[in-house]
Amino acid sequence: MTTSADNASPDFLQDLSAAVDAYSPRRKYLIGVSGGRDSMALLHGLRALGFRHLVVCHLDHGLRGAASRADARLVEKAAKKLGYRFLGESCQADLEAKSRGLSLEAAARQMRHEFLARCSRSEQCHDVFLAHHADDQIETVFLNLLRGTGTAGLGGMRSQTPLRVGKAEFILHRPMLGIRRESISGYITSCRIPFREDASNQDTRHTRNRIRRDALPHLRKLFSANIDEAILRTSIILQDEEAWMQTLVPAPAESLACEELRAMPKALRRRLILRWLREQNVPEPGFAEIERVLGLLDIEGPAKVNLPGGWHARRRNKVVFLERPQ
After folding, report:
1. Transmembrane residues, as ranges (predicted)?
2. Is 36 annotated as a binding residue?
């Protein structure tokens, strides 16, 4: 089957081709497609590059009513036209956020990962393409700076992220992290690829949208557009440094001995606790959660602290351990 994307050769296709050079187009891959500009460009771009065995995965978060359902119909139609299998589900992310004790953003991310885990198991496929691009990376680094994250957050998204959700293990691949939004838009326009615009992307109540629409344009005006490349360069440096520092963190046991933690440098303590919380599947652990657990080392302090998702950390008999939500 030939599409308009097959006959186009803008810079986008050249950059995408270089990014997926190590991936065999003869293999099967999952691809997360929302119906937006970026994921539709990735879907059609991979088709143009000869990837014939994609499985298109779409989760309707149930947040925008008829608009969400229209997104799902567009993605299913595109998958059928390109000759791909389509896997779709719907959920109510707002209700799940309340029941799980998470923010809407955190709950939606968790549900996407659970959906991809189900797709991975059903398809016996452990590689998932996602459409995050260079401008997403810039915004993520800036957002994490405002949140006060460490080097892990300031390194931004990785080109490959291994995930374990329940018994499913899979890898998120982001081949467009080196491609700018302008190039993606040019490809979409030149190939006349249909996509859906999410109205919430214009809502400046969301911090990321204010960064995209207000903060970054103002900084470019003050300091020149080179600030984008500086942020991307910094993220690459910090990713490499973070990877090295992670090799210094010992594998945590199921419970942590207070005396051993106290003997560690504080930076190593924080990293060990973060790894411990992640490996125990505590949702969205960050600085505040790490500091709460560190507070348990103070024998004059609390013996129990609350964590996201109904989890608790407790100190008893000089040991810190986790209690799972009921």
Report:
1. none
2. yes
**83's tokens:** 């000759």
Q: Is residue 38 marked as binding?
A: yes
Q: Is 39 annotated as a binding-site member?
A: yes
Which one-letter amino acid corresponds to residue 309? G
Q: Go through the domains of the chain in sequence order and give each one's CATH number.
A: 4-202 (3.40.50.620), 256-323 (no CATH)
Q: Give me the half-sphere count of Cα atoms (radius 13 Å) on the Cβ side of residue 326.
A: 0
101 is in an annotated binding site: no
pTM, rounded to two decimals: 0.87
325 confidence band (pLDDT: 50, 70, 90): confident
Instruction: Output DSSP code: residue 26.
Output: T
37 annotated binding-site participant: yes
pLDDT in tens, 130-186: 999 999 999 999 999 988 888 888 999 999 999 999 889 999 999 999 999 999 999
Q: Is 159 annotated as a binding residue?
A: no
